[in-house]
Amino acid sequence: MSTESLVPSGGSEDVHQQNVAPPCKMPVTSVKLGIIFGFAVAALSVGLALGILWPNLFTSILFRKLILSPTSMSFGIWKETPIPMYLEIYLFNWTNADNFSSTATTKPNFVELGPYVFKEVDYKVNEVWHDNGTVTFQQKRIWHFEESMSKGSLLDKVTNLNVIATTIAYSIRHRSPLVRQFVNTLIRTTGETRITTKTAGELLFDGYKDPLLEMGLALNYSGIPYDKFGWFYDRNNSETYDGTFNMFTGATDVHKMGVIEKWNYSNTTEFSGYCGILNGTNGDLWPPLPDN
C-alpha cells in the first residue's frame, strides 16, 4: 500500500479544520446577574454610609482619644513635658557702680552677661480625678544648669542694685521725713547699701541671705515669704510654688479640655474686673475648636 492512499482527498488543511472545536461561551443566568447586582448594591450602600457617617465616627474616635485620663494617649505628654525646654537668662553687671551717687553726672554702665541656660522639665503631681470631669493637680518644675550651652558660670560676680534695700526705700517715699529718716538709719546699721555684688547662682536660683530680710523674719513680719532673696529662689523642684490647679479633662465636654476651672481653689484672682477672671488653659492642653 502506498502512503498516498492514507491521506484523505481533502488534504492536511481539511484535517486541521475538522479537529478544532469552536469556542464555547458561558451562559449568563439570572442567578449570576442577581449576585453581581447584590454585591454592587451592598458596596454602594457601604460607601454611602461611610461617606455620611465617617466624619462623625472619626470625630467620636478622636475625641475619645483626646479626653484626658490616666489611660489616655494624651496623659503621658501632659504628665511630663515631652520635648526639651530651655530657659535662657541674661544678667547685667554694673561696672561703674562705685562712681554712682545722687549728684553724679556719670551715666551708669552695664555689661550684658550670659546667657545662662537651664534645661526645664515640668511634671504634674498629686493628681486627683473628679466625677465632674475635672482633675486637680500641682506642677513641679525642675531646672538644671547647662554649662555647655551657657556663656559664663554661675560663679560669675554680678554687681546690681540692692533690690531689698531699694524696695524698702521706695515703699516709704511718701511717708513723713521722720519715718524716712528712721528707716534710713535702720538700713545703715545693717551695713546695707544701694549696691550689692553676688554670684549669678545666688541671684537666680540659690538665693542669698540679707540682713534686712533676717530682721523682718525676726520681727515675724508676715509680708516676707522667704528666708533668702533670689529671682527664682524656692521655685526649683517645688510642688507648691505654682499653686493648685483644677482643670477640665474633656470627659463631660471635649471643647473644655485643658481649660482651667480654678486656681488655688478659686475661679478669680486678686486682680479686679475681667482681668481677674480665669479664662483659658495653662498651655499644656488645648481644646478643639467648636466648629471643626
TrEMBL record:
Single Gene Ontology MF annotation: scavenger receptor activity
Q: Mind listing the UniProt keywords for this protein, alphabetically?
A: Cell membrane, Glycoprotein, Membrane, Transmembrane, Transmembrane helix
Cellular-component GO terms for this entry: cytoplasm; plasma membrane
Q: Please, which domain of life does this record's source organism belong to?
A: Eukaryota
Provide the taxonomic classification.
Eukaryota, Metazoa, Ecdysozoa, Arthropoda, Hexapoda
Q: What is its main location?
A: membrane
Q: Where are the transmembrane segments?
A: 35-63
Tell me the organism: Cephus cinctus
**Quick one: which gene encodes this?**
LOC107262920
Q: What is this protein called?
A: Protein croquemort
- Cellular location of this protein? Cell membrane
Question: What family is this?
Answer: Belongs to the CD36 family.
Pfam families with a match to the protein in the record: CD36 (PF01130)
